[in-house]
Amino acid sequence: MLVIVPAYNEAANIGRALEDLSAHAPWADVVVVDDGSTDATAEVARRFGVTVLRLPCNLGVGGAVQTGYRYGLLGGYDVAVQFDGDGQHRADQIRSLVRRVTEGGAELAVGSRLLEGGGYRFGLLRYLGSRLLAAVVSLIARQRITDPTSGFRAAGRRTIRFFAHHYPQSYLGDTTEALVWAARQRMKIVEVPTPMRPRHSGSSSASNLLGFLHTLRIILAVLVDCLEPRVPEEPEETK
To answer: How many domains is the chain built from?
Structure first.
């Protein structure tokens, strides 16, 4: 199993996230993808003995996550877990996500903050935006999706291969569009209630009003996605 930790200027938080992984998922390999940080993110991560991939410039979280999936594909991993470097995700919840992939047949398991047991609270505008986005994604996926922006996910081998070749790059839309792309490939997607923490340091990249405006842009993006033909799961040259 591989844990992919995308990180951009998370020197104040990455150590706490890696300590959590060491305590609760010591069996997993960890790769930190440093997305062109200008602080000491990479140096802090290396102190924990994990693999650190440094991107030469900031690609955004989509590019960092895809880099992790490409690393996972080349390494032949059976399961890859997305785990944010800001300390919000809880490593003690990884087992429940991975179990749905290894035992439940899911190809993508998503940790939901909004299912019963998640207990996460958004601000009003972000909550309304999240509900609107969830309704649109549920309609496209033809199943109930409660938390399409959650970046806490476990992917099986087919999904690792797909995301290594195809992963959305849009700002704050990568998680939602990735879910839509997986659903359009008819992958089996499940949600698992997973409590998460507030950020310990720094702030979210989406404030209430800004987050709501980005939600509207993401909805437009996923609707455009649905007008386009499905991409092949693997480029022809890799077959």
So the answer is: 1
